[in-house]
Design brief:
Length: 454
């Protein structure tokens, strides 16, 4: 015979006469979940267990395991299994002394609960948990996809809120889903969170594949949307920080795969962005060094139009402009050394070094305005005048060593060699100067390093 918890007058919310209201109530909850992705509210998790269900649970006075099992069986596709399972699990926890008992205690440890058929109860709990996790997996997958579709539909929005909406909605949704399970018990929370982060990894693999194709198409446009690249970088950075902060709660393999997926997307995004920058920078510099009366400010003004100043992602913008700054400086040196000094004196002024200094100062001024705090990468250009005027070999070695120390990048040694050859030194003299330089490793690996061959 099925054992009962005799707690007083019976009031069972899923009996035939009450089943329809509960079904309608659960449908309302499911409808609420469909709105979870809109804006920054997480209504799905807020509606998971609403006031009406709580009132039903609080009215329970006498329940049998058979009736609990029947309640699980009536769940259909039209009703959220997750909400039913949460309700039933909560019912059980209302009458048991320990919330974690169901998942962690042995039969011997609960012998004092005399009125419970432990075998049947254990089977029932396992079934409820399995149904819950199965539905959580399906719901997380569908909801993350819905979040992405909403973000795609708002791609033309220029607001700061829209710029970070994707990562904010994802984080709020995952946290909300996990917190509901935590209200029941720690063990269930662990299971639900593992499902959530596993589905997040699946989602991110699909998202990064699609996003990579979108960004590649942008590089083919005459006027690529730079903001889309910045937005992608911000999304990856925010989600990576979130995942790493949750590290102790995530299976190591899922953590590593998720971080790796996001970092690969960051690298690709930065590489494609710098290809765009390199393309219009080279076009401008080619004209600048070969045409009279061309102003270098035309290039910096173009950067201002391509790179809007965004308050919501200053950290990302500074990181991007740091790479852009190094790339422009390198390309400037390459175009400079390809130009004949005599021709430059005719088209620019008699003091070529001074003109390079003015360009370097303007470049730093405009880039630092777009990204305050960016590191100064124009120091090599500022030393061009001193390099050209130096006649003594030993003194030249000191000047070149100073240039290397002030601007340590992966292309630094290559740029110094080009400048020495442009100055007019022979191959032997260039080798003599470079061999006197101390070995200094670059401060950081740059995304633009793959473009330096240009």
């Amino acid at each position: 015979m099925v054992k009962r918890w005799k707690l007083g007058r019976r009031s069972i919310p899923w009996r035939n006469e009450d089943r329809r209201p509960l079904r309608e109530n659960n449908n309302d909850i499911q409808d609420g979940s469909d709105q979870a992705c809109v804006g920054f509210d997480n209504s799905l998790t807020q509606n998971t267990f609403n006031t009406d269900e709580k009132r039903c649970l609080q009215s329970v006075r006498e329940i049998t395991l058979q009736e609990l099992a029947e309640f699980l069986e009536v769940a259909t596709d039209s009703i959220s299994i997750k909400h039913r399972c949460c309700s039933v699990l909560m019912l059980a926890f209302v009458v048991l002394p320990s919330q974690d008992l169901l998942f962690t205690a042995s039969h011997q440890e609960v012998d004092h609960i005399k009125n419970v058929d432990l075998m049947l109860f254990t089977e029932w709990v396992a079934k409820a948990k399995d149904k819950l996790l199965e539905n959580v997996q399906k719901e997380v997958r569908e909801s993350l996809e819905k979040i992405l579709q909403i973000e795609r539909s708002q791609k033309d929005s220029d607001s700061d809120e829209a710029f970070i909406q994707l990562n904010v909605d994802i984080i709020q949704y995952i946290d909300g889903m996990s917190s509901r399970a935590q209200q029941i018990c720690k063990t269930l929370f662990d299971h639900v969170q593992e499902v959530c982060f596993q589905e997040l990894l699946v989602f991110l693999r699909r998202y990064t594949t699609e996003q990579a194709e979108i960004l590649r198409k942008q590089t083919e446009k005459a006027e690529p949307e730079i903001k889309l690249f910045l937005k992608t970088l911000k999304t990856c950075e925010a989600l990576k920080q979130y995942i790493q902060a949750k590290g102790k709660d995530i299976k190591p393999s899922i953590l590593m795969d998720t971080v790796e997926t996001l970092e690969k997307m960051e690298d690709l995004t930065m590489k494609l962005l710098l290809e765009i920058v390199a393309d219009f920078t080279k076009n401008h510099l080619k004209k600048y060094f070969k045409t009279k009366n061309k102003q270098f400010c035309v290039l910096t003004e173009e950067f201002k139009t391509h790179f809007p100043k965004l308050l919501c992602c200053q950290d990302v913008q500074e990181r991007v402009m740091d790479e852009v700054y190094k790339l422009i400086t390198h390309l400037y040196v390459k175009h400079l050394v390809q130009s004949n000094q005599r021709r430059l004196r005719r088209s620019w002024s008699s003091n070529v070094g001074q003109k390079v200094t003015e360009d370097a100062e303007l470049l730093h001024y405009d880039i630092s305005n777009m990204a305050p705090g960016v590191q100064q990468w124009n120091l090599m250009l500022l030393k061009i005048t001193e390099l050209l005027e130096c006649k003594d070999t030993d003194a030249l070695k000191i000047v070149v060593a100073s240039m290397q120390q002030k601007c340590i990048t992966k292309s630094c040694r290559e740029d110094l060699e080009l400048l020495l050859r442009w100055k007019g030194l022979s191959k032997r003299e260039v080798r003599d100067v470079l061999e006197a330089l101390p070995e200094i490793r670059p401060r950081s690996v740059s995304w633009y390093s793959c473009l330096t061959c240009w």
